[in-house]
Every structure is written in structure tokens, then in C-alpha cells.
Amino acid sequence: MAKCDEGYLCEVCGQDVGAMVDSDLYLRYVIGRVDPEVLHTSPERHLRCVPSLSQYIVDEKFKPIVCEGVFDKRQLDPAFVAAEEGLVTRGWRRLRELAHQDLPIKDYPLEEVRRAMRERYGD
User: Fold this and answer.
1) pLDDT above 70 as % of the chain
2) In three state form, how does the secondary structure of the chain look?
3) Distances (CA, A) of 117 to 45, 46, 52, 86, 120
4) C-alpha dihedral (10, 39, 24, 26), degrees to nearest 10
5) CB–CB of 11/43 below 8 Å?
6) Quick check: 97 pLDDT over 60?
7) Where does the source fall among the domains of life (predicted)?
8) Is 96 exposed, middle or buried (0-12, 13-18, 19+ CB in 10 A)?
């Protein structure tokens, strides 16, 4: 089977990441943590396979994730946790919106991320 026929396989569990709302890679892109220049070469993972990020999604439509160990948000600075929860949750909600839209990939990120990208790369 050709690599392009395999879909996007999670580097953690090896299963297909079939939906954008389950994608760690696209969430990180939407919130500005993956540069658009390396999006196509970055590894894909299910959100549930990356608890260090997905623990910050706080939404009734997302089953909470607990991250054990040094990255457990319960052990981190509350101000940092609140900021991460705000950003990551908004990013995940953006992924849910994108699932119902037909936009160019450059328009996927949150508005403040798109603004920063325009400043960095031009329009």
C-alpha cells in the first residue's frame, strides 16, 4: 500500500487519525505551535494519545483526560493552567468548526495565530 493510501497514522498507537477533531497535529497548528512550513512533515497523533496537551481541553463535548507525572496540570502553576486551558480549548472548538467548513488550510488557525503568521510571513 502506498504511504498516501494509509491515511494519517498516530505515531503513538499506530491507528488511523481519521478526524481532524481527534488530531494533535491540527490542534497544535490551529493554536500556533506547529509552523505551517513543517505541517506536512510533522508526526500525527490522536489527542487522546497526547495527554500532556489534551488535558487542557475543557469542554462538555470532550471527555476529560488526566496526564500523570511531571506534566500533570494539577501540579502546575494555576495561571499557566488557566491560560493553557483557554487556548487549547478554543483551538479544539475551532477544529470542530472547521469540520463543517471548506476553508484553505492557511485559514485554520485561531485569528491571533493567523495575524502573527501574516506578520511573520506576509499575506
Assistant:
1) 93
2) CCHHHCCCEECCCCCECCCHHHEHHHHHHHCCCCCCCCHHHCCECEHHHCHHHHCCCCCCCCCCCCCCCCCCHHHCCHHHHHHHHHHHHHHHHHHHHHCCCCCCHHHCCCHHHHHHHHHHHCC
3) 24, 25, 25, 20, 5
4) -120
5) yes
6) yes
7) Bacteria
8) middle
CB 20 within 8 A of CB 30: no
pTM of this prediction? 0.90
Q: In whole angstroms, give the CA distance from residue 103 to residue 91.
A: 16
Beta-bridged to residue 46, according to DSSP, are: 23
Give long-range contacts, CB 8 A cutoff, 24+ apart: 84-87.
84/56, 85/56, 85/57, 85/58, 87/31, 87/56
Provide the residue ranges of all domains of the chain, joining segments of one domain with +: 3-103
Do the beta carbons of residue 45 and residue 11 sit within 8 Å? yes
Residue whose grid cell is 494555576: 78
3-30 per-position pLDDT tens digit = 444 578 999 999 999 899 999 999 999 9
